[in-house]
Automatic annotation (TrEMBL):
SUPFAM superfamilies: NagB/RpiA/CoA transferase-like, Winged helix' DNA-binding domain. The keyword Nucleotidyltransferase does not apply. Residues 3-58 form the HTH deoR-type domain. Signal peptide: none annotated. Pfam families: DeoRC, HTH_DeoR. GO terms for molecular function: DNA binding. It comes from the Bacteria. The keyword DNA-binding applies. This is DeoR/GlpR family DNA-binding transcription regulator.
Amino acid sequence: MLANQRREKILELLMEDGSAKVVDLAKIFKVTEVTVRQDLEKMEKDGLLIREHGGAFLKNIKDQVSSFSVANHDHMDRKEIIAKKCLDFIDDGDTIILDSGSTTTEIAKQLKGNRNVTVITNALNIALMLGAEPNIEVIVTGGEFKPPTLSLTGQKAADFFKGINVQKLFLATAGVSLKSGLTYPSISDLVVKKAMIDAAEITYLVADSSKFGKSSFASLGALSLIDTIITDVNIENKHKQHFLENDIEIIIAE
């Protein structure tokens, strides 16, 4: 992996977890700690992060948490359209899981005042958004807090879903690759997302078209883990065809 590519992946990890240790980054990318320190020094000079002893943390992370703002604001127009379409698949009385993420946050906004449902989530911003809604019951998982995504993660979050059965899961992703499947920047999220999938009768992947053809660091598994993809009109035909060939339903939000 080239240095620029590695630094991009390091930034992805920081944007997901908020901070990282030099020793962990060296193991993840199979390079020396000296190399990682050089990467972090360059990235700090570029204004992307702040170094600390033994690691680094994302710049402006405290401001982001205090404002309760999810980091990824790209393609929000597409995400809003996708979220509106998701309401077609949520019925009164449903118990659903909303994964953490910017698209699932948009789904939560659309649910306000529209449905009588139970929402299970690992996203604290979603819980606060829906917690005061009189017709929505909100259940929050436990787990380790990740500041950039305002989410709870790790084995404790995954253990929450043991023995639980819900109608629908609305799952987020960082990348959808024909080769690597569903991918994410953070390894700690994989166990949570797999537990969510196991708990749901139907899994909807909510992903705007910019996510297709992209690969992040950690792979959850094959696309066969999901039942339906809800995306926007800009999805390329080659991706659409691959999903159809693998019996994955595609819903285009317009």
